[in-house]
Amino acid sequence: MSDFTSNFWSIYVAGVTVIGIVACLLLLVFTAKKKVESTSDNTTGHVWDGDLTEMNNPMPRWWMWLFVITIVFGLAYLFAFPGLGAYSGKLNWTQLGEYDAEVVKANQQLQPLYARFESMPVEEVAKDPAAMAIGDRLFMNNCAQCHGSDARGSKGFPNLSDADWLHGGAPEQIYKTIHDGRVGVMAPMVAAVGGAEDVRNLAHYVLSLSGSPNDSIKAALGKEKFAVCAACHGMDGKGNQALGAPNLTDDIWLHGYGEDAIVAMINKGKQNEMPAQAQKLTNDQIKVLTAYVWGLSNKPAAAH
Amino acid sequence: MTSEDGQKSSGRVIPITPVPDSEQTESVSLYEAQKKIYPRSINGMFARWRWLLVFLTQAFFYLVPWFQWGERQMVLFDLGARRFYLFGLVLYPQDFIYLTGLLIISALSLFLFTAVAGRLWCGFACPQTVYTELFMWIEHKVEGDRSARMRLDRNGWTFEKIWKKATKQAIWIVLAAWTGFTFVGYFVPIRELGAEILALHGTWQLFWVVFYGFATYGNAGYMREQVCKYMCPYARFQSAMFDKDTLIVSYDPARGEQRGPRAKKLDYKAQGLGDCIDCSLCVQVCPVGIDIRNGLQYECIGCGLCIDACNNVMDKMQYPRGLIRLSTQNGIAQKLSQSQMFRRVLRPRVLLYGAVLVALCLALMFSLVGRTPLKVDVVRDRAALSRIVAGGKLENVYRLQIMNATEQTRSYHIGATGLDGVEVVADPRIEVGPAESRWVLVRLQIPYGSAASGSHKVLFEVSAQEDQAKVIEKSVFLVPR
């Protein structure tokens, strides 16, 4: 793969490299011998300041051979590996190929570890301490960035350790979430709801659904506006897992709590994404992770 | 500018060397095959000292890995598990500061010894010297002394030469392999190492045994003084620590010259001769092949064997000892007595090196003795800044790595201070196995609104239940706007 539009630079770089190596070799050859006056006292015959003479103390020959070896090594390396401009080397070695080979090798090594869990149902895997130790490490490396080390999430990132699920908490649903990712969309509803006052009233009604502190008069005014929302959140506001619409009647506030946060949500909407992990993780790993996540909220007492 | 314009600019004349005439010149190679050195063996005080140090250093090196400390090896640098076991200590990678201290102490010791007495390290304690000494001793035992070895190398392949060379090589290879094996035994348990290698389990172990074995064989068998002359960086910079009061191996030309052979009956001084009889023994015993009578040279490793050789000759000639002796440049030039030279040892540079060295040694000792066998790293969750949880509390999440540096199972309690009303949500008792480390999830909570928005300092206190070990680590608690 050349990084340039023409191959002039490739040839240029290769030329500079080769000429440099050859120049080193020539320099070595031409400076290895020196014409000196034949003197009996082992000096080169040069005199400075009247009495300072230069001794002729040759370097050991193995030193010179080391230099030659580096040149030979350099040429052999450039022949075998990429390095000379765009020439990709006889071995066709690439970083990407190396990486892929290592991933394949690592997965082969991991295969027997995961083989045990393949036929187990997820609920059983969740009880297996070895699987949970693997799951914990996988979670820390791949999930904790967003959901937190304790899986309790933060603003905008769902809490995975409670019983409240946007897309369903059954093992196969969790597996699908991890494998394919999820997108949660709420369009800006301000046009459908009405004016700014209507939005505020509606926010108070939403607060009232979960028994949160609210202005009952405004909430009563906002109740009729909720019909717009019911399409996704349901008439009772309990949400819809098929759409990933949150339950509005509990006191879990994924995107912020309070009147202002709800008003902003109605006005601006939200697009939230959980990225698919199928490219990053093997199916075996996703299965163990599924068991881990499922186990977080399905333990007798989460001794985490 | 020529001298004919009559203007003398200054009195200085720049000497001009005529270009050599082509008939007088010859081409010389600037590289040459190294002349092999055949040191003659010698007895004397310095030779005995060298052997004593060979014995001490190698007894230490070869034996230490075999000692046990309780259930484990006494000294083991377990790179795989990232634990260094040193007598009763378990050192973690976080303890690398001790290695730094050790290296600084080693460097200062080198400075101190070099300033006082020249290249003591090179002549007596350096592994290169010690193994060369061992390999030469084997060579000497098998092939004979200097002249015998030279004759053997000069002549063709006779049966005698074949069996002598083969025997020497065999013993060399065994010793080198054992050295490599011992070295690797510092990093993997040496008692199982042999079996592992024989069963072809540890490919890496085998590789390093062969690697270090070969390095020993090559360096001590063949490279020898070349390592000191052309490769070793310490040899190069030790000359920077010399001054005119440093003890060096020195030949006393005032006493020795005019050198030359003499008849024992005649009064040599009347013939204008000095004490040196030009027997060249000092050159023959020198392991780096120099003639010390030319003055101090960079190759000299200060081993003192030429002193032994010369003193033996002086005894035979019934001249006083010490024509070649340990002396200082000032000592030789100003004819100082021993006591005068020893008084000059306590000069500012030496006192300073000594003071810093003692201070560092004490600091390292105290810090090792008073070391808490527990380490804690606090890592705040980077993604989740803070959150509000049920009960109107603000919560931050942390992961604590608790490192147990004892060899028993310990249980730890985690507390937190530094914030009003801060509460710890974690297991009340956290068990960590011997010499193991564990990541523990800890959540801190404060009542909502009890602290201004922004970042606050918070202190984790981790204390062991079974002993007094306690560690306090800083972190931050974030309060959202």
Automatic annotation (TrEMBL), chain A:
Binding site for heme c 2: M186, C229, C232, H233
Binding-site positions, heme c 1: C143, C146, H147, M274
Highest taxon listed in the record's lineage: Bacteria
Keywords, comma-separated and alphabetical: Cell inner membrane, Cell membrane, Electron transport, Heme, Hydrogen ion transport, Ion transport, Iron, Membrane, Metal-binding, Oxidoreductase, Repeat, Respiratory chain, Transmembrane, Transmembrane helix, Transport
Cited SUPFAM superfamilies: Cytochrome c
An example Gene Ontology molecular-function term: electron transfer activity
Cofactor note: Binds 2 heme C groups per subunit.
Functional pathway: Energy metabolism; oxidative phosphorylation
GO biological process: oxidative phosphorylation; proton transmembrane transport
UniProt key word Ion transport: yes
Cell compartment(s), UniProt: Cell inner membrane
Entry's transmembrane regions: 12-32, 62-81
GO cellular component: plasma membrane
Limits of the Cytochrome c domain: 130-210, 217-297
Coarse class of the protein's main subcellular location: membrane
Family matches, as Pfam families: Cytochrome_CBB3, FixP_N
Classification via InterPro entries: CcoP_N, CcoP_N_sf, Cyt_c-like_dom, Cyt_c-like_dom_sf, Cyt_C_IC, Cyt_c_oxidase_cbb3_su3, Cytochrome_c_Oxidase_Subunit
UniProt family annotation: Belongs to the CcoP / FixP family.
Function noted in UniProt: C-type cytochrome. Part of the cbb3-type cytochrome c oxidase complex.
NCBIfam families per the UniProt record, alphabetical: ccoP
Name of the molecule in the record: Cbb3-type cytochrome c oxidase subunit
The species this protein was found in: Diaphorobacter ruginosibacter
Species classification: Bacteria, Pseudomonadati, Pseudomonadota, Betaproteobacteria, Burkholderiales
Gene name tied to this protein: ccoP
UniProtKB/TrEMBL annotation, chain B:
Transmembrane segments: 49-69, 96-117, 170-190, 202-222, 350-370
Keywords for this protein: 4Fe-4S, Electron transport, Iron, Iron-sulfur, Membrane, Metal-binding, Transmembrane, Transmembrane helix, Transport
Location of the 4Fe-4S ferredoxin-type domain: 264-295
One of the record's GO molecular function terms: 4 iron, 4 sulfur cluster binding
Keyword 4Fe-4S: yes
Lineage: superkingdom: Bacteria
GO cellular component: plasma membrane
Bias type Polar residues, positions: 1-10
Region of interest: Disordered: 1-21
Gene3D superfamilies: Alpha-helical ferredoxin, Immunoglobulins
PANTHER family cross-referenced by the UniProt entry: FERREDOXIN-TYPE PROTEIN NAPH
Protein name in UniProt: Cytochrome c oxidase accessory protein CcoG
Organism: Diaphorobacter ruginosibacter
